Amino acid sequence: YERLTKGMEILKRNKLPFGISCCYTSKNVDAIGSDEFIDDMIAKGAKFAWFFTYMPVGKDAVPELIAKPEQREHMYRFVRHIRETRPIFALDFWNDGEYVDGCVAGGRFYLHINANGDIEPCAFIHYSDSNIREKTLLEAYKSPLFMQYRENQPFNKNHLRPCPCLDNPHKLVEMVEKSGAKSTDVQAPEDVHDLAAKCQKVSEDWGRRADELWVENRAAKEAARKARGEE
């Protein structure tokens, strides 16, 4: 942490714009999701902040670190609070799904290529059926796995439940099986059923609260639209 903040000091002193990337878990969400933390980052010169929730990817993952529904909701509201009150641009990779119509991965807006050249639909989805050393990007976009993504997006009508892994794990299982994609985890291959099992309960728990939030959001936006006199 001291090395990171030292680097931030150097960047700020030389007037070089930079941002921060934060992973919130069930253990640190109270710290990361606080005014004190974001104010400190602003004081250190950060111009934007990316927030990511913990993903239980890999055989050594710790499912207990997955944010609980009330914690994810807190970050949902906190990021919007930042936008309204702080001079920093904040984004949440999961909780901002409502602005981009759900999941952006699988070549819809982006993809990920790992160190071995495997072309993955997302930095958090370590399954692939293409390698950059063997296929062009265009060929990868047309691969069975990426086509499965496009056929299934959005993975949920509720865009606060955008992810095919954390929020809709049955979808990830279905796409990997239909495409024949293989695990590309750099430490040890992970069966997609094992990954989905780690996400199942949290997807159900978050799903109930997310559906309530979605209804609240739609109602609030409709009321605001009518207040502006829009038909």
Question: How would you describe this protein?
Answer:
The protein is mostly helical and 231 residues long. It folds into two domains: 1-95; 101-205, no CATH class. 45% of the residues lie in helices and 10% in strands. The protein contains eight helices and seven strands, in the order H-E-H-H-E-H-E-E-E-E-H-H-H-E-H. It has helices at 2-13, 29-32, 35-43, 69-85, 137-141, 144-152, 169-179, 192-227; strands spanning 19-24, 48-53, 89-92, 112-113, 119-120, 127-128, 182-183. The protein has a three-stranded parallel beta sheet, covered by helices on one side. A two-stranded antiparallel ribbon has the order 4-5. Helix 4 (69-85) crosses helix 8, helix 6 packs antiparallel against helix 7 and helix 7 (169-179) packs across helix 8 (192-227). It is globular, with a radius of gyration of 19 Å. The mean pLDDT is 96.
What does this entry show, briefly?
This protein is mostly helical. The chain is built from eight helices and seven strands, in the order H-E-H-H-E-H-E-E-E-E-H-H-H-E-H.
Q: How many strands appear in the DSSP assignment?
A: 7
Helicity range of the residues?
40-55%
Gyration radius over CA: 19 Å
Q: Approximately what portion of the residues adopt beta-strand conformation? A: 5-15%
| Oligomeric form | single chain
Largest sheet: 3 strands, parallel
